């Protein structure tokens, strides 16, 4: 068996979790690759909520869905993922974050520790039991290490009885390779 690359692994986790009819979240829509992937998993009875703070990312994501005739499965919001609780009022089966900046776009627009953690906290509340939050953490850019460390500190202290937290990382790759953190909700609890 070949070891899966990080992005492949992230999608594999989503595929194993998401079923037709599910509500799911793409917290960092970017070019819309994950939004499309999720839209294909949820079927016509499901819904993808996609968030991005860049209008160009929202437009690209919407176009990608339109190109595949799947626009009815996605709600693409020009809002930050820290507002997820304001827009999503259903139980969520899975959420994906690709942290960092959008390649080919403005490298100064990056995800930030505080807003990322607020979104994770709120998604943990919205998540159904057995649901998954997948974080792909890019940390080679300015600001990336601060976000990586803050996110790791936050997820590491989540009580194991309620949330299982996994890290999937290659240890001998050059140039700060991205890695995956996955959170599986085991049980409801008052998450702060
Ligand atoms: C690494 S890119 C995402 C790549 C994307 N998943 C794809 O398939 O192309 C990170 C994205 O997060 C967005 N972003 C930054 N801060 C955000 C926030 N607070 N809420 C939502 N998106 C944010 C950026 O605009 C950028 O498009």
UniProtKB/TrEMBL annotation:
Q: What is the name of this protein? A: Class I SAM-dependent methyltransferase
Q: Which UniProt keywords apply?
A: Methyltransferase, Transferase
GO MF entries = methyltransferase activity
Q: Which top-level group of life is the source organism from? A: Bacteria
> What general EC class does the enzyme of this chain belong to?
transferase
**Cross-referenced InterPro entries:** MnmM_MeTrfase, SAM-dependent_MTases_sf
Enzyme Commission designation: 2.1.1.-
Q: Name one GO biological process term.
A: methylation
